[in-house]
Amino acid sequence: MNKSLFIEICKRLYDRKYVVGSGGNVSVRDKNIVYLTPTGSILGFLKEDDIAIMDLDGNIIKGNPTSERNLHLMIYRKRKDVNAIIHTHSIVSTFLSIIDKEIEILTADGKVFLKKIGYVDYYEAGSVKLAEETAKRDEDVIILKNHGVVCLGKDLIDAYVKVETLEEQAKLTLLKLLVNK
Ligand SMILES: C[C@H](O)[C@@H](O)[C@@H](O)C(=O)COP(=O)(O)O
Ligand SMILES: [Zn+2]
């Protein structure tokens, strides 16, 4: 697992305001081992030694993994093609879910990188129910209503591109709603 890339991606998510405060979490799977951001951590300030480690069975090997660990693990167990998961609180993507508007895929990037967007109703953050309902989805891009987004990738770069592209499509959707008012 490329720990320096993991830290760099977390820093960019924070610096580009896909998360604020201690929000968001990231994980990477390497065979039967999962590397996760620690619960309560500020993604912009992480060091390589802060990265928590679990196995796919849910045993903690190192540190205190994210409170959304069940969400990450349930997806990895179901989706053998997924090796990275990014959860953010992307503001426009989340805002549209608050006003019950679906994100439209409006440009070429959206069509290429997002394909379909799934939606999960609001369930308490960190709950097994939220994890179960999210893991039921088959899309790689999932909106957690009134909470944030979850993007799945074959690797960390793939998941990161989906986070950025999703927020761009959300911004375009919002602009379209405002112009068409
Ligand atoms: C309230 C929590 O911040 C929730 O939003 C959670 O989903 C999150 O984003 C960060 O939780 P961790 O710090 O436990 O990863
Ligand atoms: Zn969250």
UniProtKB/TrEMBL annotation:
<dbReference type="Pfam" id="PF00596">
    <property type="entry name" value="Aldolase_II"/>
</dbReference>
<feature type="domain" description="Class II aldolase/adducin N-terminal">
    <location>
        <begin position="4"/>
        <end position="174"/>
    </location>
</feature>
<dbReference type="GO" id="GO:0046872">
    <property type="term" value="F:metal ion binding"/>
</dbReference>
<comment type="similarity">
    <text>Belongs to the aldolase class II family. AraD/FucA subfamily.</text>
</comment>
<keyword id="KW-0479">Metal-binding</keyword>
<keyword id="KW-0456">Lyase</keyword>
<dbReference type="GO" id="GO:0019323">
    <property type="term" value="P:pentose catabolic process"/>
</dbReference>
<dbReference type="GO" id="GO:0005829">
    <property type="term" value="C:cytosol"/>
</dbReference>
<dbReference type="GO" id="GO:0008738">
    <property type="term" value="F:L-fuculose-phosphate aldolase activity"/>
</dbReference>
<protein>
    <recommendedName>
        <fullName>L-fuculose phosphate aldolase</fullName>
        <ecNumber>4.1.2.17</ecNumber>
    </recommendedName>
</protein>
<dbReference type="InterPro" id="IPR036409">
    <property type="entry name" value="Aldolase_II/adducin_N_sf"/>
</dbReference>
<dbReference type="InterPro" id="IPR050197">
    <property type="entry name" value="Aldolase_class_II_sugar_metab"/>
</dbReference>
<dbReference type="InterPro" id="IPR001303">
    <property type="entry name" value="Aldolase_II/adducin_N"/>
</dbReference>
<comment type="subunit">
    <text>Homotetramer.</text>
</comment>
<keyword id="KW-0862">Zinc</keyword>
<comment type="pathway">
    <text>Cofactor biosynthesis; coenzyme F420 biosynthesis.</text>
</comment>
<dbReference type="InterPro" id="IPR053406">
    <property type="entry name" value="Fuculose-P_aldolase"/>
</dbReference>
